[in-house]
Design a protein that fits this description.
It is found in: Cytoplasm. The protein has 413 residues and is α/β, with parallel strands linked by helices. The protein is built from 17 helices and nine strands.
């Protein structure tokens, strides 16, 4: 027997309107020897219910024929409030109809008055045994659950790597997502972080240092992305991979790079890729992201700050190059030239890319109106937004939304 259970005392309530019966029951049982304790006594059903709930009793000895609330009604109410409580009937009513009702209410036994002490002790031992067995099973299950919970990070890492390597069916992926308490859908983003081969103070990072830097970056990423559903793990190539289930996480993801540079004094390369919306397409996104981060060109601190600033402010309809340049303490002309040189596109084109990319995700994933989406992504009017959207994608926002839903319907058939 579990050591904790051997010291535990199960609480019993005796409910009978006759004091002499209650006293007879109380005096005929070796409660201490049976690891039981009489927590309360009641002379009517209403009082019995109140005391049972107050004390959280485990066993009730109930007379069927009590005033105010009879035993059958009491048992119904107890079943609602204390579903695990064991009920034993002790009554002078031996009618079969009463017994049938009691059986339906999951009564453990049915003893006629006057209660035989030996029979009562036998029944109580059986009921206590059931309680101990149920509690032991529950404790074992809780311990198993705790062990599984502690293993979640490792289990998630193994599953996610297997998912990204391909070869899993959609049903297997959905089952594992549910088991590992991850959102039951394809992530919105797949992020990859590559640690540098060297640090400022060493030609090549030693493996121990690399591990320490890796843990530090993991911690920074976990803190920055705390508000979002996610999983963070290392792939076999030493890359930090982050799956994110939130459209809003984009700007915060890119903050990781800045914080790593500021606090760790290393230049980690980061890449964030949009997922396809299809769980089976994620391995392709992963392969492209790996390739992208390995060939990522060095971006100057100014342009890196500009990218971050644009991610955080593109939803502002009054956003301008001049306002950003002023915030970054540089001239608009110089900033524009650096963006073009390092990102291979103009300020306006890059801003439009950000806005239209977010708009496509909102059209796919939300029921927001076209006007609401236009406002969220920084356009003053729906007309201006629709014009920019069609110029970029070749479709109007409404056509794009209908086409996206049509593709989903086709996949579901």
């Amino acid at each position: 027997m579990n050591e904790a259970l051997s010291d535990f005392r199960w609480k019993v309530l005796i409910a009978d309107d006759e004091q002499i019966i209650r006293e007879g029951i109380r005096d005929s049982v070796d409660w201490e020897g049976m690891r039981l304790t009489v927590a309360a006594e009641a002379e009517d059903g209403e009082e019995a219910l109140e005391l049972a709930i107050r004390h959280g009793v485990h066993i009730m000895l109930v007379d069927l024929n009590m005033p105010i609330m009879d035993g059958i009604e009491l048992m119904k109410r107890v079943r609602e409030q204390l579903p695990d409580c064991k009920i034993v009937i002790i009554t002078g009513h031996d009618e079969f109809a009463y017994a049938q009702k009691a059986i339906r209410l999951q009564v453990k036994d049915y003893i006629l008055k006057p209660a035989n002490p030996a029979q009562l002790a036998k029944v109580l031992r059986q009921v206590r045994g059931e309680l101990e067995e149920e509690t032991s099973r529950q404790q074992q299950w809780q311990e198993t659950s705790r062990q599984i919970t502690r293993s979640y990070p490792l289990l998630r890492e193994r599953f996610c790597q297997q998912w990204l390597d391909g070869g899993m069916t959609a049903a297997e992926i959905a089952e594992q997502l549910q088991f590992l308490k991850l959102p039951d859908a394809c992530p919105d983003w797949l992020g990859v972080i590559r640690l540098p081969e060297s640090a400022s103070s060493a030609a090549v990072l030693k493996e121990d240092d690399r591990q320490l830097y890796g843990f530090a970056v993991d911690n920074i990423a976990a803190e920055v992305l705390a508000p979002y559903p996610k999983t963070i793990f290392r792939d076999p190539f030493g890359l930090i991979v982050i799956l994110l289930w939130s459209l809003e996480a984009e700007a915060d993801f890119y903050r990781i790079e800045t914080l790593v540079r500021t606090h760790l004094k290393i230049a980690a390369e980061v890449h964030l890729a949009e997922a396809t919306g299809d769980v089976l397409g994620l391995p392709v996104v992963y392969r492209k992201a790996k390739f992208a981060v390995m060939r990522e060109t060095v971006v100057s601190p100014l342009v890196r700050r500009a990218k971050q600033y644009m991610l955080e402010h593109f939803g502002d309809s009054g956003f301008t190059l001049e306002a950003m340049a002023q915030s970054l303490q540089t001239s608009p002309a110089y900033l524009s030239r650096m963006i073009k040189q390092e990102l291979g596109t103009t300020f306006n084109s890059y801003l439009t890319q950000l806005r239209i990319r977010r708009a496509t995700r909102l059209l796919n994933a939300t029921n927001l109106t076209i006007g609401e989406i236009a406002e969220q992504v920084g356009y003053e009017t729906q007309h201006y937004f629709s014009t920019a959207f069609k110029r970029t994608t070749g479709l109007s926002p409404l056509q794009y939304r209908k086409g996206a839903f049509g593709r989903e319907d086709a996949q579901g058939e």
